[in-house]
Amino acid sequence: MRTPWIRLGFRWVLATALAAALGTAADARAQSSSLLGNPRTRRPLAMGDVSWTYIPPVEPKRWKVNDTVTVLIEEKTKMLSEGQVDQRKKIEGSMNLKDWIKLEDFALIPDPQSEGDPKIGGIVDNKYRAQANLQNKSSFESHIQCTVTDVRPNGTLVIEGHDRVRIDEEEYELSVSGIIQAEDILPNKSIKSEKIAEKSILLRSAGHRRDGIRRGFLLKLLDKFQPF
Length: 228
Description:
The chain has helices at residues 2-30, 47-50, 208-213, 217-225, and strands at residues 68-96, 101-104, 107-110, 119-151, 157-167, 170-180, 190-192, 197-206. By secondary structure, it is an alpha+beta fold. The strands form two sheets. It has a six-stranded mixed sheet with strand order 7-1-4-5-6-8. Strands 2-3 form a two-stranded antiparallel ribbon. The termini are far apart.
């Protein structure tokens, strides 16, 4: 009577052991050789998890009104212009007056023109030649601290800066304004002037040096109207 129950128990133990062995083998096949764990169960890896030399990037600065930024001015201009004009006009004409009138006794009567018909003739020869050649090069480098005056909804910054220097009797005044992108600003909080939109750079000078090269008002008037 005990033999069937013993056999049944033995079969149950054997089936349980076989199922456990198959489960262990399945887990062994599912394991990964990576030291970081099973890719199916771990979280996505980041660069900081696997690199010893990784340095996290610096968070971008949130610019506000009244923040300052240094504008590096590097302006260079070059202009070359050539022109030549050659114009000539020649006019020839002659006139012969065959019939005319004269006043006699308060009456207009035909003039017999006994001395011949009046004649007129002439030649107009006009020549005009002009030649011009202009070459102009200029370069200006400086830097100035500008203040953020407005932060627009799209993230662009409106900047404006003024600088005034006086050395003895020489005085210099520099003004810069325009619109910049926040991502164009370098980590040291500086930006090149070529990155400025709607750029306005104004440099004024006064003193002995300026007075030595400044034109008088009469020369300005002559240059404006060019009477000669």
